[in-house]
Amino acid sequence: MVSEKNTKQELLNEYKKLVSEAKNKGITVPANATGMNIKNTKADILNAIQLIEKALQTTPTESKKSEVLKPAPVSVPNVPKKAPAPEPRKIPEKPAAIVKKEDNELSLLKTEIKDEIEALEAAKTLKKQEYDELLAIQTELENFVAMINDNKNKNLELEKSQAEQTEAQEKKSKEVTELSDILNAEKIQTAKDALEKLEKDIADAQVALEADRKAEIDDYNYRTSQKQKMEDDAWDDELKRRREAIAEIQAETAKLQDDIDSKAALVAELNAKIDEIPSLIEQAKKDGADAKEKELGRDYGYKTHMANKDAEVKVQSLQKQIERLKTDYDAVLAEKNDIQTKLDKAREASNTLYMATVQSTGGVKFLKPDKN
User: Fold this and answer.
1) Which residues pair with 364 in a beta bridge?
2) CA atoms of 51 and 48, how far apart (whole Å)
3) How far separated are the first and last CA of the chain, in Å rounded?
4) How many whole angstroms separate alpha carbon 8 and alpha carbon 19?
5) pLDDT tens profile 228-281
6) In angstroms, how far apart are the furthest CA atoms of the chain?
7) CB under 8 Å to 16, separation ≥6 — which residues?
8) Distance between CA atoms of 39 and 45, rounded to whole angstroms?
């Protein structure tokens, strides 16, 4: 006896058992007790079980059912059989008069008998026709009854076969359900095992990943520190090289400045000499004029010619000296301009190198310029 204490699966098994029993007995399952499955509540399944049990209890037993379903034999009307003909009676011999009288009577009797016999023959023929008709009807009724009995037997066999098939189907369904439950349980267990393995694999992979990340971070920090150290060393070397280059440029700049200063004195001297050229020319002219006046008393033409020659020579000499001084002045000026250009370039290169030193790609480096 099931109750609310049983599990839902046990209630369903009992429900299926009662449904199968009701079908085997030809009992109709109540409408509100059909279609129970795992989705229904325990109360609904238990109520359906009680309704089916009540239906089974109020239904006649299988033996009574068989008596009810047993086909009633069809009664065939009894057809009266033909009575056997009476044996002829022996007549004793009589006197002739009596015999004659009797013959006359017999002749009359024969006539009556003959009429009766003919009437009987007609009735016999009519009865035979009726009998044949009754036999035909009886044959048809027997065939009909046999057909009805055969159909009933077939129906009983069909119901029995259907009940057996239903029972077999329910048994197979039950076996399939149980097998499905077992397979589902195995699949669920397999899925649980796979899930546990997957979770373990994920945890192991997480640990391995964290270890790999730690190793990568340590390696990255090491490589970064080594790279930073190499860059710092390279920067120190570059800084030293740039400072040396700046010192060389500053030394060259100082040297160029000294050359400019020394050339400036020479330029000033040459400018002074150039400024003296007009006075020298005037002095030369004056000296030539004085010489000419002293030699007027002599051979005027020769002296004059020679004086002019001397003056021309002195003038040419002074012109050449002036040209040479101009050439030297231009050379010194060009050299001065070239030195100034180099000095400007050197300063520009020094400033560029200084700015490149301050703004380094390896990071911001602070370089203090040397104080002279």
Assistant:
1) 359
2) 5
3) 116
4) 16
5) 888 888 888 887 887 787 788 778 777 777 776 776 676 677 677 777 767 777
6) 266
7) 170, 173, 174
8) 10
Residue in the structure block whose two tokens are 């080594």 = 226
pLDDT of residue 368: 47
**By the 8 A CB rule, do 51 and 32 touch?**
yes
For residues 38-45, average pLDDT:
87
40 backbone dihedrals φ, ψ, rounded to 5°: -75, 160
The predicted pLDDT at position 351 comes to 77
Gap between the Cα atoms of 154 and 6, Å rounded:
42
> pLDDT tens-digit profile of 143-160?
888 888 888 888 888 888
Sign of CA dihedral 134, 138, 144, 145: positive
Is 328 within 8 Å of 271 (Cβ atoms)?
Answer: no
∠ Cα 155 159 161 (to 5°): 115
Interatomic CA distance for residues 291 and 285, integer angstroms: 10
The amino acid at residue 240 is: K
Q: How far apart, in whole angstroms, are the C-alpha atoms of residue 9 and residue 187?
A: 19
- Joined together, the tokens standing for residue 65 give 């059912």
Q: According to the 3-state scheme, what is the secondary structure of 23-75?
A: HHCCCCCCHHHCCCCCCCCHHHHHHHHHHHHHHHHCCCCHHHHHHHHCCCCCC
SS3 364: strand
From residue 84, how far is each of 81, 87, 116, 260, 276 by CA, in Å?
9, 9, 17, 186, 206
Q: What is the mean pLDDT of residues 299-304?
A: 58
Distance CA 306, CA 313 (A): 10
What is the spatial distance between Cα 22 and Cα 163, in angstroms, rounded to a whole number?
A: 10
Residues 149 and 73: their CA atoms lie apart, in Å, by: 8
Q: Strands 359-360, 363-364: parallel, antiparallel or unpaired by DSSP? A: antiparallel
Q: In terms of C-beta density within 10 A (0-12 exposed, 13-18 middle, 19 or more buried), how is residue 33 classed?
A: buried
**DSSP assignment of 148-164:** HHHHHHHHHHHHHHHHH
Q: What is the pTM of this model?
A: 0.25
In the prediction, which pLDDT does 213 show?
Answer: 85
